[in-house]
Amino acid sequence: MDWTGLVFETIDMRSFSNLWFWIALAVFWSSNSHWVLGVPFDMVGRARRQGGQAAQDLEDMVRIQVNRRLFIAEQAGLWLVAIVSALLAMLASLGFWYDIELAQALFLLGFPMALVGGLSIAAAARIRSQNLTGEALCHKLAVLRFWVQVIGMIAIFVTAMWGMYQNLAHGVLG
After folding, report:
1. pLDDT in tens, 72-89
2. Per the UniProt record, which residue ranges are transmembrane (predicted)?
3. I want to staple 171 with a disulfide (CB 3.0 to 4.6 A). Which of 63, 155, 157, 167 is the partner?
4. pLDDT in tens, 105-132
5. From the centroid of its chain, how far is CA 32?
6. Are 70 and 128 in contact (CB under 8 A)?
7. E strand intervals along the chain
8. How many whole angstroms from its chain centre is CA 139?
9. What is the pTM of this model?
10. 87: number of Cβ within 10 Å
């Protein structure tokens, strides 16, 4: 076997039959549920348990992340929505109309993440407008994390079902 054949056999170009895709999917959703609004969720638990400096650190970090996200949304929000929508439409068309598996995989990663992004912007706006601190802030971050995890579980389930279908339809038997 030549070198390029070995590389392409090791890095299977079909997304849903590739172990690396499933590892990336798991890491992707694991990190998204841990980093809520760009803040590691263990800081929320520490702030709830210890209070004091840990709570102040959480509030400072959330304030920085909220201001950063809302600044980007205010300055480039319309362009970001247009670009993300166009990319998702392109991936959906290439993936499901033209049957390009890589585009399907990227769409199944990107679409739920767009939902999480919108949810995060809405939560950031609510945190700023209500000036949440202390336990109310911790509760808001916990609720946001819950919904990110729900979206992640649904996304993983749909991706797994679609991936199994693709592997059965286009795999060894197809």
Report:
1. 999 999 999 999 999 999
2. 20-41, 78-98, 104-125, 146-165
3. 167
4. 999 999 999 999 999 999 999 999 999 9
5. 5
6. yes
7. 35-36, 39-40
8. 21
9. 0.86
10. 14
